[in-house]
Design a protein that fits this description.
91 residues, mainly beta, 4 strands, globular
């Protein structure tokens, strides 16, 4: 089986507000997006405002201050996301 395009393993992200209080954006996120040959497809993150969609996308893109995850592994093509890269784009 091919390496997943994106894989999250028990990913969590906590931010510390200016008041010093921790705010959990996402926790225990697990999913993978398989590379299916000869298939064109769109993958959608759907949910209400504030549920963590943008946090997940920013972790995939490797964008600070969201990157890196507080816990867990965010992988692209089997490699940990270490920052922005030419293999990913965000619109």
């Amino acid at each position: 089986m091919a390496t997943p395009v994106v894989e999250f393993r028990n990913v969590g992200k906590t931010f510390v507000g200016s008041d010093g209080v921790e705010h959990v954006a996402i926790k225990d996120v697990n999913f993978k997006v398989d590379d299916i040959p000869d298939k064109g497809e769109f993958i959608v993150l759907l949910g209400p405002s504030g549920c963590g969609k943008s946090t997940i996308l920013n972790l995939v893109a490797g964008l600070e201050p969201v990157h890196p995850p507080t816990v867990g592994d965010a992988l692209v093509f089997g490699q940990p996301v270490s920052g922005p890269g030419p293999d990913r784009g965000m619109v």
